[in-house]
Design brief:
Blueprint lengths: L5 E5 L2 E8 L4 E7 L27 E2 L2 E2 L59 H22 L1 H24 L14 H27 L3 H6 L1 E5 L7 H13 L10 H11 L11 H6 L1 E5 L4 H5 L7
Antiparallel strand pairs: 1-2, 2-3, 4-5, 6-7
Length: 306
Amino acid sequence: MSVAPGWYVDPADPQTRRYWDGEGWLGAPIPVDATPPEGPPPPEPEPEPEPAPKPVTPASGPAAGPPTSGPPPGYQPPANWQQGPTPGQPAAGPGYGPPPGWPYPTWPGRPPEPRPHGLPLASFGARLAARLIDLGIVFALIVVVTRWFVVRLVDETSAPINEFVRRIQEQDRTSEPLPAAGNQTGSLIVVILLIATLLWLAYEVPAMAANGQTFGKRLVGIKAVPVEADTPLGFGRALRRWNTLGLPTLLWYCCGLGLLLQLIDAISPLFDHPLRQALHDKRAQTVVVKVPRTPVDRANPPGDAP
């Protein structure tokens, strides 16, 4: 049995009436106490589409010209407009940044090198020269301290070495294995490497902790300083800095692995930009700079007016 068309109380909302056309509800509801109209409700008008926004074009003078990507001819920037913040500082406050439509300013060409704490960065050549001087001093100390152990090591390895040299000189192609080295060969190598590592630590870490300079760095005129402030490194930072470069000495026994790690660390400043930090610098958050000869070197960097 179908329900005849007419206005009925909406079961979903008893406070309203809606028109039933025999198959479904039609039109919008009306209050339940309102007098319904004769017949079905009028059809609802379709919503009109919103007009598209008009493009805004900049005006130049009394007549509007075509839009441009930059400032209009003859435009002068405001008096309080600045070129932008200095490198390394965030833009803050009004007045920074270009006017609307102007491209953001960039460095013309190669940007200037950073000057940590007003000091120029040390060149790779200066760092290499200082490191070679320091290694020469450490090697001399190692020769003096480990002389007895080296003599014992030569005695332990003399049999296989002498036999190897004899076979080369006499062109002996025998397949017999070389004589075995002495039983203490491995222990002597470990002791020598351990003493060498400790001597390097004693030479470099206290000097770097006090003023950031070893004897080699003092001769070349460079020093290591923390990235955040021009202050002494301190023992903890100096030890972290040395660990990355000095501790691999103990791995020389492993087919020269320690020497390979130290070589990678030594040449790493060539590939680091912009602070030219070696791997041990990054570990300790330090940077190597030139030592100013006079206070003027710090106050007036190159390019500044005297």
